[in-house]
Amino acid sequence: MNNNKSLLKILFLKEIRDILRDKKTLVIMVLVPLLLYPAMIIGITLILSQMENRQMENTYQVSYQAKDESIVSKLRDSYEEIKEEEELSLQFLPGEQEEREGGVTLEISEEKETPEMVLSYNATNQDSVTAHSQLKKVVEHYKEKALEKRLEDEGLAKDFLTPFVIQSKNEATDTETMGFSIGGSLGMLLITTIMMGAFYPTVDVLTGEKERGTLETLLTLPVSNFQMILSKFLAVSLFACASAVLSILSIGGSLGFLLNSVEKMYEGETLGIDFSSFFSFLPILLIVVIITALLLTAVSMCFCIFAKSFKEANNYFTPVMLIIMFASMASLLPSVELGGKTALIPIVNVSLLLKAVMAQNLSYTLAMITIVVNFVYSILIVWVLAKIYCSENVLFQDGFQSFTLFEKRSDIKRGTIPKTGDLILAAAVLLLLILYSGIGIGVRSQMAGAVVNQCMILGMPLLLIWYMKLDMKKIFSCNKPAKKKMLAAVLLYVGIFCLTMILSAFLMKWMPESTGNMETAYEELLTYPMVLLLTVAALMPAIGEELFFRGLLFGSWKLRLGPVKAMLLSSLIFGAFHMSLVKFLPTALLGLCFSYITWKSGSIYPGMVLHFINNLFSFFTMKYSEEIAKLLPILTKTELAVGETVVLIMIGAVCVVLGVLFLEGQKKQRL
User: Fold this and answer.
1) What is the pLDDT of residues 502-522, one digit of tens each?
2) CA distance 572 to 83
């Protein structure tokens, strides 16, 4: 154990030295955060300040016709009354406007009963725009004075035109309001910085070794490939974290400088922001930065590992960078907040968490979910990365040879079995599509989002069947099941359903916040007619999800890895796709049940039927909860008594044992 630690330490220090030799890495990691961000923030602020000062110092010309002198004289009086308060600087001159002044022309028409004032300006000239804005304030003040005079002549008070007063009260503090405003852009900026800080070191430690020809020598060392890739991962993560921390310090210092300048400029007046209140969130921010660095490093390495040159690595990483930047922009949408569902979406949850921190309305439960989810994603990606690093096709040839999907369709043989890389890529792409369609479509209409999601889930296996020329019977088990196997499948499902009820009740009690989010997610769907609801939420998932999870994933992995590993992997992915911590384990358990039934019955159809019944029963129970509660109250309870738990365990155990025995009873299994 100690020997492994010392080897890992040596490899880690070796990677650090290699990264530090690359000047591009130091520029991106140090110069960008320390010089570029302050220059951008302070520079733009100073430019805007100079423009504002210039506008305050300039005197803008208002041109008018000599015949309107009587009205203009009243406008001058209004101007003198408000010029100090509104910081106006106008000069009223009769005659044509001089172009060099960039002013505004005032035209007054008294032909109608109500006189008209036309303010002509040039929208492409900033001085003219400013002159128009200032003159408009003067005209509005003159209008109010004229109205008061009319009311006075009629013997009416000014309040006659004001039946009631409307006041808006912002219950958020200035700190919360300001934090909410800048929190969205801050998350996007930080994620982009971490991503760029991870990319260049990743290219150096992976692609650089291939270009320098040192990879073969490195592989002769008495260390495992996992130790090698882990040392690279830790080294790159360190630099990504350092880049993020420097960015935070740089941005914080720049904002502090600006606030101090504002305080001096306005003689002690501040924006009303208490930055000391943000210090309590620093531990959370630090952990989030580290976890985000781990995740983005793992993602960067997973793509750059296939490249043989810097140019090729840049080509592979560009679409990934665009996707990550798009995900980080979720915090810019005012209607999207950190919740039970968005906390499960990588990158999006980090961006929304930073927005919540700045707005000072962060839930620590959601923060922990965000941290755990991103850490789990990082571990899974590193595990996949370690598997990829053991492939000679990746290290010494075109890495994408390990993916059948990247071959020409004409070169793919009929009856091909998808490789693990194909399946993981298909699942990852499908998950991303579902996540982002949930943000783009599901926010507006849950029904539309559900239809789109189910169409994508059904479309993915159909697309692979066509492109990869898959054997439907061999992989998807499209065989007619025996009647005895259908009965055994029902028994097994009933037993598993009883056990999932117990597990769900425990998880609902343990995570009440996630339970509330799950109930809210189906509120709109339950308002639709039952036929439409069951078609979209029961029938379509029964077909599409079974084809993808029990057909494509389980069927392919069963032939490559064996049935046990195939059941576990496909079931875990099935649980993850439902994007709920409360539903993850129960759904994964149901997925395990359906996979086992598909394996032992030799047919995917029993799983489809039971999947439809399960969804039918779930939505029927939610839509008619009061009626179901009267008939079978145990089905609608969120907390189970000890006696009820024991009964469910006994029924579940008996049904599971009988179901397994009947399914195992057939000696001749179907493929």
Assistant:
1) 888 887 776 665 555 555 556
2) 69
Give burial (CB, 10 Å; 0-12/13-18/19+) of 98.
exposed
Strands 116-120 vs 60-64: parallel, antiparallel or unpaired: unpaired
Tokens of 233: 């991962």
Burial class (CB in 10 A: 0-12, 13-18, 19+), 21: exposed
Sign of the alpha-carbon dihedral angle for 124, 127, 130, 136? negative
DSSP-assigned states of every residue in 484-516: HHHHHHHHHHHHHHHHHHHHHHHHHHH-HHHHH
Backbone φ and ψ of 180, nearest 5°: -65, -35
Return all residues near 171 (Cβ < 8 A) that are at least 6 apart. Answer: none
Q: Model-level pTM? A: 0.57
Residue of 183, 386, 389, 382 whose CA lies nearest to 293 = 382
Q: Give Cα 26 to chain centroid, integer Å.
A: 29
pLDDT tens-digit series, residues 543-579: 999 999 999 999 999 998 899 999 999 998 998 888 7
CA atoms within 13 A on the CB side of 109: 7
As a whole number of angstroms, the distance between CA 217 and CA 157 comes to 94
Pick the more confident residue, 403 or 283: 283
Residues in the chain: 671
Strand partners, 91: 61
